[in-house]
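SEQUENCE AND FOLD
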Amino acid sequence: MLAAGLMLQTISVHAGYLSLQALDAETGLPLADVVMEVELPENLHAQFLSPAEREVDQQDKEFVARATLITRNSQVRFPNSDNILHHVYSFSAAKVFELPLYGSGRNIDYLEKFEVAGVVELGCNIHDWMLGYIYVAETDFAVVTGADGKGMINNIPAGSYRVKLWHPRALPGDPALEQEVSVSDGELTQLRIALSLSRDHRLRRAPGPSRSRYR
């Protein structure tokens, strides 16, 4: 088992960058859906905030992507690409909303605005196993890892920062979730972090067509 930890290394490039390699501490395999956010002083938030429009689709009775990264004041669509009804909701502190039963091709122009930073947990009132997350960052200086466990934040002003990490199954209190880094002009700072994960407690999907009304 890998010990949760941090490795810093700098190499010469043309801008101040911060990269992440996230691993599963138990298996050593790359870990997707890890968010890394650089915490800026509050007086700089507005300067480095670029809200955008994003999309969280519903495909094969799952949220796609499972973890979506946005910044405050961004807006998100929730299309339904399945040929059945979905009922999307969240009761999270960062955002409470509900999209009652709707099918494919409906709500395609609907946008939900996310104004508060934090983690928004998504569910479907029809399919209990469906679980997704929207991570609302304070500024643009955040990234979510892909299937290779890697992510990069570009053009960070030189300075010392607190970095926080999040994953849906990260163990609370894991010291690897908070790091201190220094970013210098013309250098790349690399983080290589192993996270300990809790068990996946998502409900199992409903069985096939002959045994469930969900299919």
